[in-house]
Structures are given as structure tokens and as C-alpha cells.
Amino acid sequence: MSTVKFYSGETIPLEMHKVRIVQKLNLVPIERRLGAIAEAGNNTFLLRNRDIYLDMLTDSGVNAMSDRQLAAMMEADDSYAGSETFTRLETRIQDLFGMEYFLPVHQGRAAENIIARVFVRPGTIVPMNYHFTTTKAHIVLNGGSVEEIIVDEGLQVSSDVPFKGNMDVGKLQQLIDTHGAERIAFVRIETGTNLIGGQPHSLQNLREVREVCDRHGLMLVFDASLLADNLWFIKTREPACRDMSIREITRAIADLADIIYFSARKLGCARGGGICTRSQDAFLKMRELITLYEGFLTYGGMSIREIEALAVGLEETMDETMISQGPQFIAYMVEDLARRSVPVITPPGGLGCHLDAMRFLPHLPQAEYPAGALASALYLVSGVRGMERGSLSEQRGPDGSETFSNMELLRLAMPRRVFTLSQVKYAIDRIDWLYRNRDLVGGLRFVEEPKVLRFFFGRLQPTSDWQERLLARFRADFGDSL
Ligand SMILES: *Cc1c(COP(=O)(O)O)cnc(C)c1O
């Protein structure tokens, strides 16, 4: 992004790229959207792309690639073993992270499987700033448990704390004092904490966590899937880092880690993933499992073209204008919505804009899934698809009772370099309209509820005819506009 000032005084995030390949989008009439959301059981995961205008479900595997990435894919050196393409990626990782060893995997959760199998034993604990769904699942599967020790501000919806993703170092020390260092499998830091609104940690916080780990001989693991956004936040929000280049910040972060793993569906705008380490011992232990679960050591389940694109994508991540695009579009959206009093997570983070459904729809009890209802309502009035991150995404307790989540969020992910500013403005306008008409939005109830991961496949019904009434209000206000 560029810091160009407009004559009018307005500042907008100016795109520092141009579009050279496009995909046609549909904006179907609201009557069709009512049909589509009913067919999808009011679950945005079950909508079909042809009925969606802006797909803000996720940033995973849907970031735009650059012309240089596409060109590199054509030159990929395809072979089962010993491919030059793999060596290019390995060399890039060594250069960026200063870590000697690299293991390729097919996506982020595959790295989590390998790391958990090697380092988590029954009864061990993994302290972390915050969990991600697949991370926690792999740790628990191997008999371990997760302790979330995010700073208190991390779970406050509105705040002006710049680093809500920091780990509380005091709580880490307490945890070690209580359980003993031998019970700790490793300490995990997630860059750009996904589930609490893409909130970053500071470089200083990593240094403090490292000190505690060193004192107790603990291994420190970084989940760098959302590193690109976090690099930008460190550069712009941490005064001590203002004069460092993105490359220097990357290296300073990597120097504090024993293992870094990532999903290349996010980091590097490609597909796949990887595990990097400076420890030969850790490398040898994990290497055996790569050939078992992922593939041979020079592809790890990735296609060779993905590997080539990733090598270029990682290098492009060192470009400030490239990594600022997501955070600046998100900031534009969050700040504009906040000015219109729409409840959003602040300060703006990475990943996307998060609507606070508890404050958006205060009349709905959590048992009627406010974040799910908001996802359904927003799709209906705009064709924008978001992802419910609230109680619907939780699992019922063994006795069948609901587990109500801390936050009821509708996540509107911002795939990098995919949308234009006028599309973002459209989303803002329709969210604003929905907020003014929020009294019309009712709840949802399950009609088909799978036991496991119900948010993926579950089907729900509105608790009344609120969707028809919302449609009628839309028509009254917008006439025959889409
Ligand atoms: C997406 C994500 C993962 C999992 O990566 P996949 O490629 O989807 O398997 C792990 N950790 C974080 C922080 C993520 O955002």
C-alpha cells in the first residue's frame, strides 16, 4: 500500500498492484439469495459459489498470486526426488529464517500432526497465546492439553491495545511453577492469532517468552501461518522496530524460535506448508514421519508447482507494500464500520473484519446462535459470505448441553489482493443497513446436527419468518436494486 494523500484530505488504502486475470462474479437478486440460504440450511459453508458475490469465508488458499509466482510455476522442476524446485524453496527458507533444516508438508495441520506426534506425550501441556482449531485437535489427539495464556486484553472485543495477541509471560512462569518444566511439551506462539481476530504479538513479547523458555530449557514453537500480517503490525505498531526492514524483523523473530511451522495456504499465497528448525535432533525425529504421512522429503505432499510458487511468495512477503494490503483494507473496513457504530473487533487485526454478534444482535440468546444468524442475514441482504465463529462452532458437552463460546463473531476474511475497494465499500454499506434493521433479525435452530464439527455440515432453520420480513424491508429501501 502506498501513503498517498488525497487533495480532499481523505486517505484510502491505494492498491500497489494491477489486476491481470479476473474471475467473473455473480450478484443474484435477494429473492434467489433467500432460496440459496434455505437450500444451504442457513449454513454459509454449504452455499454454492455461483450464489455468492463476495466470498469472505476464509483467507485459506484463496489469496491472489503474483505474475512472478505464476511464471515460476511454469518453470518448476518436476521429479519425485532431488528436484531443483525443492532446493530453491529450502534455500529461500534458510535465507529468510536462518534455519538449516526444512521439511515440506501438504498443509498447516499436517505440520501440527507431525510436531504433536513427536513432542506431545500423554499428560503433557502445551502453553500457547491462543489455540487454533486444528492445533488443539492434534495436541489433544496425542494425549496432551492446551493452556491458553493470552494477555487479558486479548479477549476484550473493543480495545486500543496494539498487541492483543501477546502471551502473558507471568502466567507462563506460573504454569511452569505449578506443573514443573518436565510436564511442558513445548511453548507455542501463534503469530496473528487466528480465532481472536488476527491480533498480533510484539517482537518484545517473543523475547520475553524466549527468556522464560531458556531459563527452564523449554522448546519454543511458532505457528507462522499468519506471519505476514504480524510482520506489518510489528513494523508499524512497535516503535523499537520502526527502522527495521521486514526482512530484519522476520529474522529477529526466527532467531527466537526452535521450530517454525506454517500453512502456505496463507503464508506465501500458495498451498502446502512446512516445518523449519535449527535443531538437527528435532529434524531427524520429524523427518521419519514426513515420509510416512506426507510424501518424500523433496515434496511432502505438495505439487511441485505449489513449491515453486511458495518459494517466490515467501520472497514477496518481504515486500512491505505486499504485506500491508490485507491489514490496510481490513483497517479501512473496521474503522468505517466503527464510525457508523457497528460493533466490530478493535483495533483492526489481520485476516479479516470481525463483527461482534452479541452486540449486533443483543436481543438474541446464545442458544439461538447470534453469530450464525448474522452470517445468514448478511448473506441474504448482500451476497457476502462470512464464517460463524461462535457457539455454532463449538461442540456440545457429553450430556448434550451447549458450550457457549466466549465471543460470538462473524468473521469476514479479506483474502489478500483479491477484492477492490469498491467491493469493500459495498460490504460496509450492506452491513450498515443490516445494523440499522437489526431488530428484524431472528435466531436459528438446528434441524440436522452432526456430532462432530457440526458447523461444517449442520443444517438450521430460522426460528420465525424473520428472513421474509428482512427481504420485504430490503425491497422497500432499495427498490429493485440487487
Ligand atoms: C490455517 C491455520 C492452520 C492450519 O493450516 P491448514 O493449511 O488449513 O491446514 C494452522 N494454524 C493457523 C494459525 C492457521 O491460521
UniProtKB/TrEMBL annotation:
Keywords: Lyase, Pyridoxal phosphate. Signal peptide: none annotated. Its cofactor is pyridoxal 5'-phosphate. One of its GO terms (molecular function) is carbon-carbon lyase activity. One of its GO terms (biological process) is aromatic amino acid metabolic process. It comes from the Bacteria. The keyword Cell inner membrane does not apply. Residues 55-423 form the Aromatic amino acid beta-eliminating lyase/threonine aldolase domain. The modification N6-(pyridoxal phosphate)lysine is found at residue 266. InterPro entries: ArAA_b-elim_lyase/Thr_aldolase, Beta-eliminating_lyase, PyrdxlP-dep_Trfase, PyrdxlP-dep_Trfase_major, PyrdxlP-dep_Trfase_small. SUPFAM superfamilies: PLP-dependent transferases. Pfam families: Beta_elim_lyase. Homotetramer. Belongs to the beta-eliminating lyase family. This is Tryptophanase. The lineage of its organism: Bacteria, Pseudomonadati, Pseudomonadota, Alphaproteobacteria, Acetobacterales.
